Amino acid sequence: MPADLDNLCRCDNGRSALQLAWTLAALTVLYFVMFYFMNEVFLASIILAAAVGILNLRIFSLMHDCSHYAYFTGRRANAWVGTFLGLVVMTPFFYWKYYHLKHHGTTGDLDRRGWGDVFTYTVEEYNGLSQIERISYRIYRNPWIYLTVGPFLYVFILMRNPFSVKRGTRERRSCHLVHFVWIYIYVILFASGVDVVKVFALQLITIFVAGFIGLWLFYIQHQFETAYWRRSPDWQFYDAAWQGSSYLEVPRVVEWLVGNVNLHDVHHLDAKVPNYRLRERMQSLQQAFGSRNVLRFSASFKTFRLKLWDEEKGVMVGFPKRQAKLEQPSGR
Q1: What is the DSSP string of 19-77?
Q2: Which residues contact 174 (CB under 8 A, 6 or more apart)?
Q3: Least crowded by CB within 10 Å, which of 101, 303, 305, 330?
Q4: CB 274 within 8 A of CB 248
């Protein structure tokens, strides 16, 4: 790819600032209208809370760009904006970034699993698990639990654990900052006579909507039949990025709402490309690396049937079918 075209696919400070401004403005308007109707027509507030949840997913994608220093040319600007956007979506920026960057460096590596991915056992490993471990894994991989309970576990437990990182680090401080800001917000609301129970109920709706869509997208990005999993000696970054990531075909309006995260293979190959230029980068990368893992919307839900990696066949498969014991006819 020519150097000048490569530079065109990098961030534009002006364009990023404009995108950020109108996205936050739209979110502010939605919040204002949602709270306006909260004590008048609560059903309207619930509908607006769902809209806020969708827009929060877009906010999350902008924070994601900041984690790769792909949204502004200055590292400090990315850090400050990323921290602020993390507060908006209740995600400690540096804490989340720590695990996400490790995910980029280990995705598809069977010997380095567990860094910001959907944990996956191989068929052989699953067969060696105890009954309790199998049940736990089946619960974890159950799509209804993953998509409905998962958003709340992610926000209230996984993102609330500063003790998994070293004391005094910016990762731990970012966790404490989110805790402090949101507790402070609720204290101020309560002191002002606002019905915090209704506020919290609406916030749960925004978390559920954003989490449901976000976790669905996150799952299908690396969980499909021909995904890429290798042992460390055979693992290759570019193969893991292109072969192990999917491209979800959705209407452009949906792509716009989710910040182009459906172009996940392009992002894994070149994480320095901001969300609004992933399509520009897509064509050149496809020419360089060949065919892609294309998922259509209707087919994306079928990926939830895939639970294990079959190392011999090199594909994702479902759980082993239970073998029914055949009753032998009694002799006469």
Answers
A1: HHHHHHHHHHHHHHHHHHHTTT-HHHHHHHHHHHHHHHHHHHHHHHHHHTT-SSSSHHH
A2: 83, 86, 92, 93, 94, 95
A3: 330
A4: no
pLDDT digits (tens, 9 = 90+) for 9-32: 789 999 999 999 999 999 999 999
- Six token digits for residue 164: 């998994």
From the number of C-beta atoms within 10 Å of its C-beta (0-12, 13-18, 19+), residue 271 rates as middle
d(CA 155, CA 81): 20
- The pLDDT mean for the chain works out to 89
What's the token pair of residue 71? 């949204």
The SS3 call for residue 208 is helix
Q: How far from chain centre, in Å, is Cα 278?
A: 17
Say how far apart CA 229 and CA 274 lie, in whole Å: 27
Q: At what angle do helices 93-106 and 75-88 cross, to 10 degrees?
A: 110
Q: How confident is the model at residue 131 (pLDDT cuts 50, 70, 90)?
A: very high
Weakest-pLDDT range from 75-79, 164-168, 235-239? 164-168
pLDDT in tens, 266-284: 999 999 999 999 988 888 8
The helix (run of H) or strand (run of E) holding residue 122 is: strand 121-122
Cβ atoms of 293 and 240 within 8 Å: the answer is no
What does the pLDDT read at residue 4?
46
How far apart are the two ends of the chain, measured CA to CA in Å? 79
